[in-house]
Amino acid sequence: MIVTTNAAIAGKQITAYHGIASGNITYSRSFDKGIKAEIKQSLKSLMGGELVLYSDMKKHYFDMAMTRLMADAKEKGANAIVGVSVSETASQVGDTVLVIGTAVTISD
């Protein structure tokens, strides 16, 4: 499935629109990898450098939200998604990743 932030796909024609597709996930940073990992990451943040555990966790949840976006579009009968946007919000409960776009059918 082609997924793009653009409103169109070069060399392809949009033949049908299926509405908005979305994928989201809300996750808690506190319980993902345990207290030991949290302490290590906290110490590293004080000393500088990439927080690899946190970066990996963010990537994992972004990928999950994208998978849900594509599944939603497929359920609507689409074979591509255009105009995709990504947002992330943080709250006391956890972080939320939301991806939305327009589910479309394209032809060659």
Query: How much helix, percentage-wise, in residues?
Result: 25-40%
User: Structural class per helix/strand content?
Assistant: alpha+beta
- How many strands, which pairing sense, and closed or not: the largest β-sheet? 4 strands, mixed
Query: What radius of gyration results from the CA coordinates?
Result: 17 Å
- N- and C-termini, Cα separation: 13 Å
Shape: elongated
Helix count from the secondary structure assignment: 2
Low-confidence stretches: none
Order of helices and strands: EEHHEE
Strand order of the largest sheet: 1-3-4-2
Report the mean per-residue pLDDT as an integer.
87
As an assembly, this protein is single chain
Number of E strands: 4
Strand content of the residues, in percent?
35-45%
Structural notes for this entry:
This protein is α+β, with helices and mostly antiparallel strands and 108 residues long. It is built from 2 helices and 4 strands; from the N terminus they run ββααββ. It has helices spanning 35-47, 52-75; strands spanning 2-3, 13-27, 80-90, 95-107. It has a 4-stranded mixed β-sheet. A hairpin with a 4-residue loop joins β3 and β4 (95-107). The longest helix is centred in the middle third of the chain and has 24 residues, at 52-75. The model has no long low-confidence stretch (mean pLDDT 87).
